[in-house]
Amino acid sequence: xxSSAARSTTNEECDKPNVRSSKRRGEVVELxxxxxxxxxxxxxxxxxxxxxxxxxxxxWSGDSGAPNSRGDSHGLEPGGCLWRVQVKSTHxxxxxxxxxxxxxFSAGGTKxxxxxxxxxxxxxxxxxxxxxxxxxxxxxxxxxxxxxxxxNSGSKGRYEHFREAWYLMHCMEEAT
Length: 176
Prior knowledge:
The chain has helices spanning 2-8, 17-39; strands at residues 43-45, 56-60, 81-90, 93-94, 97-101, 103-105, 111-113, 121-126, 131-136, 145-148. By secondary structure, it is of the alpha+beta class. The protein has a single domain, classed as Trna Endonuclease, Chain: A, domain 1, CATH 3.40.1350. The N and C termini lie far apart (54 Å).
């Protein structure tokens, strides 16, 4: 009987279509990121709560499937790379491209750019184009807004070389 009572309870926040749809779109993109990263061989964890500046912790342990130095059959080497990853997305096409905020709200309510102390990578999904960008934080700080042009074949946009650059999260010196 408790479940029927819970179903009849309304939440004013959920009754606002823009709030619900915006939040829901973000949740769906996070699930898409999770699926994509895991399918590429990454381990992915979600921190408890919403207090961190990042959405996921991504682990690249280099699982080759071969026995590792410990003789384990799973092939994972100890000391893999852990990355703090913030996922952003947009559906909105404006002025010939897609604009994504590389920022968060500070305690004072102002928008602040992400810093290397907060995240390691920004992963951007341009939903209508099914385009993913894996961008090291050093490539965009101190910018708060990033523009993408995945619909233009041969685009020379500032971040185009980060499109599908998942390899940057492998354990390599260049990624750090």
